[in-house]
Amino acid sequence: DIQMTQSPSSLSASVGDRVTITCRASQSISSFLNWYQQKPGKAPKLLIFAASSLQRGVPLRFTGSGSGTDFTLTISSLQPEDFATYYCQQSHSSHYNFGQGTKLEIK
Amino acid sequence: EVQLVESGGGLVQPGGSLRLSCAASGFIFTSYWMSWVRQAPGKGLEWVANIKQDGSEKYYVDSVKGRFTISRDNAKNSLYLQMNSLRADDTAVYYCARDRRGVLGRWFDPWGQGTLVTVSS
User: Fold this and answer.
1) B 73-112 residues with CB < 8 A to A
2) What is the pLDDT averaged over residues B32-49?
3) Touching check for A68 and chain B: CB below 8 Å?
């Protein structure tokens, strides 16, 4: 199985900050990497698919990049509604493993 | 509006069974793979199973193979998860998700609101 490791596990930041979350795959997954946002008590929401493609309706401050084994999710200027948990997910193999999540909290 | 609504969760004893349902609307159900994804309390996301449009292909995470069965009824626009021999570590919110596929990969969008399964005596 392909293992997905996110860092950091948690992050404190302020409104207006630029933040970056990293996701590393245990083997190359090309660009088969997606990012989701989950708020407490809610279902996950797709933000980015295929490493860098922004899902319709997602604000432009969200950017995804990377290929192979190393990927990043960047939020250019944090807004109050961005405080949530973020998950990466690979779709290279038939078992769609997720990263363990990164909780983004208000400083 | 694309919508997925799960039902069927609840409290069940270890070794028991439960059947989850997911009602889909707002899109052509027969055009999409569908998946179940679960989340244990306070934990991360775990893909559980998926099924092809016509039901001819099904895949499972190793931990549920032989115990869970995914199925669909295209006439009713519905997805199901039959869960047998339930264990305490199956306790989770179970989400139904549309499994989108293309040359760029596969991703889940949208997700239902989830249904809680609690396995406890």
Assistant:
1) 95, 100, 104-112
2) 97
3) no
